[in-house]
Specification:
The complex is a heterodimer of chains A (about 110) and B (about 110).
Chain A (H helix, E strand, L loop, with lengths): L4 E3 L2 E4 L5 E6 L6 E7 L6 E7 L2 E5 L6 E5 L5 E5 L8 E8 L9 E2 L3 E5 L1
Chain B lengths: L2 E4 L4 E4 L4 E3 L1 E4 L5 E7 L5 E7 L5 E4 L2 E4 L9 E3 L8 E8 L8 E2 L3 E6 L1
The chains are: A mainly beta (about 110), B mainly beta (about 110).
Chain lengths: ~110, ~110
């Protein structure tokens, strides 16, 4: 079965650079969520999209932005990168219709800022 | 607010030992409850879930029962294996909306032969 695809798997950037992370949800899933997991930390919710509109916002820095496109894939854009942005970034998707009882996560993008 | 509290790790067990990882939650309303597992270097995998009180989720020998009276969702396994070594996250969300998952801090389990 198709899963949530994230790219790239690994990314190394320097401070003050920009990065773009991509997420391709499971076919027919209309909702995408982004989470950030620092070393040894629990995943923290960043932002979510439903039908290409932002549906919820968490602890996402102003330096980050995201969008969901017409094919439902999503991109997380990160600018002016800081060392503290080094983390595992997960995308998850969920299917339409109630109940929304759980998501499918991608394998994550590990971002290292040096 | 809504939150999840897990027992601190690491939990270190010998193979075939009994496992319990405690999870309690605070929520306004009636959430769905989940356990996710994260193996080293990998993403989050749904282990089991329960969507209403007294439901029991089970998978791969793991079980957890949704206890509304104690607001708990403790994870148990009767006989752990080395391959169960991972980080386990308890989480909640509210079905029927677009709400995010709220995770506990995670509990690292190390199983030795």
């Amino acid at each position: 079965a198709a899963g949530v695809i994230q790219s790239p798997r690994h990314l190394i950037k320097e401070k003050r650079e920009t990065a773009t992370l991509k997420c391709y949800p499971i076919p027919r899933h209309d909702t995408v969520y982004w989470y950030q997991q620092g070393p040894g930390q629990d995943p923290q919710f960043l932002i979510s999209f439903y039908e290409k509109m932002q549906s919820d916002k968490g602890s996402i820095p102003d330096r980050f932005s995201a969008q969901q496109f017409s094919d439902y894939h999503s991109e997380l854009n990160m600018s002016s990168l800081e060392l503290g942005d080094s983390a595992l970034y997960f995308c998850a998707s969920s299917s339409p219709g109630p109940p929304r009882d759980g998501y499918t996560f991608g394998s994550g993008t590990r971002l290292t800022v040096v | 607010g809504n939150s999840v509290t897990q027992m601190e790790g690491p939990v270190t067990l010998s193979e075939e030992a009994f496992l319990t990882i405690n999870c309690t939650y605070t929520a306004t309303g009636y959430p769905s409850l989940f356990w996710y597992v994260q193996y080293p270097g990998e993403g989050l995998q749904l282990l089991l879930k329960a969507t209403k009180a007294d439901d029991k989720g089970s998978n791969k020998g793991f079980e957890a029962t949704y206890r509304k009276e104690t607001t708990s969702f403790h994870l148990e396994k009767g006989s752990v294996q080395v391959s169960d070594s991972a980080v386990y996250f308890c989480a909640l969300n509210f079905s029927g909306g677009y709400n995010k998952l709220i995770f506990g801090a995670g509990t690292r389990l190390a199983v030795h032969p």
